[in-house]
Amino acid sequence: MTPAVSISHLEKVYRSGTKAVNDLSLTIQEGDFFGFLGPNGAGKSTTIHCITGIAKPTSGKIEIFGVDAVKDYREARRLIGLSPQEFNVDTFATVSQIIDWMGGYFGLRAAERKERVDMLIEKFDLVPHAKKQFRELSGGLKRRVVLARALVHDPRLLILDEPTAGVDVELRRDLWRYLLELNAEGKTILLTSHYLEEVERLCRTIGIISGGKITKQGTKAEFIGSAGGLENAYLMATGAEPDHIAAAGA
User: Fold this and answer.
1) The domain containing residue 215 runs over which residues?
2) CA distance 90 to 88
3) Which of 185, 218, 223, 236 is 20 to 30 A distant from 108 in Cα terms?
4) Per the structure, how many domains does the chain have?
5) Residues 115 and 143 in one domain
């Protein structure tokens, strides 16, 4: 089976000379729920930017379901839905407009867009808010809109960058339910999060990045079953201070 994501020896060096990703290789199987963990500045966002075409790799190869993400950028990008951490939307646009416009970006015809927009607004419990401007929504509702926007063209791979940042406990659990339903329906999901509880609840496979490299990867069961669990494994893989590691394993 062709992997959903195949990254081989990826490097990204910015004009400033900063090497954000350093010889990173990673494979995500189709249908997986993959947790991509690492501290700020570790290279997570840069890797996602290279996958989605926001940034061009300095060297290495990225394939999305077998499609070269650099040489065949447009085809690869159609396979991906991205829900970014920042709200990069027109805050004066309505919920319906925001989702609809993304459908237009991916070339969906008017009738198909309307069908997809209506379905997603209902699925994410946004019907009472469909005509509201984005700026009028709560943080949790904004997260739902950005997620719905990422799904409007029915991508095979969904990338979620801190999807529950700033969301209260109840709404976070609602989002978890939505994501588990999507994954159960066959959607491959790549999740970045600083909430280890979230990763333990949702993901089946976990990769940890530090200093631009994958320092540890395995199944969730392997991480949880190790001494000190996921927290201890994360701290060790990211080079935390020994006393912090010892405290996690206590």
Assistant:
1) 5-79+156-249
2) 7
3) 185
4) 2
5) yes
Final residue of a domain: which of 109, 132, 154? Answer: 154
Mean pLDDT across the chain, nearest whole number?
92
Beta strands 80-83; 157-161: pairing state: parallel
Whether residues 115 and 208 fall in one domain: no
Classify burial at 29, counting beta carbons within 10 Å of its beta carbon; exposed 0-12, middle 13-18, buried 19 or more.
Answer: middle
Beta-strand runs (E) in 4-90: 5-13, 19-28, 33-37, 59-64, 67-68, 80-83
What's phi and psi for 17, nearest 5 deg? 100, -5
Residues 54, 160 within the same domain: yes
DSSP states along 158-185: EEEESTTTT--HHHHHHHHHHHHHHHHT
Could you tell me the pTM of the whole model?
Answer: 0.92
Q: For residues 111 and 93, what is the distance between their CA atoms, to the nearest angstrom?
A: 20
Q: What is the pLDDT of residue 242?
A: 46
Nearest to 30 by CA among 187, 143, 175: 187
Asked whether the beta carbons of 48 and 215 are under 8 A apart, the reply is no
> What percentage of residues in the chain have a pLDDT greater than 90?
81
Does 172 share its domain with 245?
yes
Provide the pLDDT for residue 243. 54
CB 198 within 8 A of CB 177: no
Residue in this structure with the two tokens 């199987």, named with its chain if needed: 29
Answer for the pair 126, 99: CB distance below 8 angstroms, yes or no: no
- Whether residues 125 and 191 fall in one domain: no
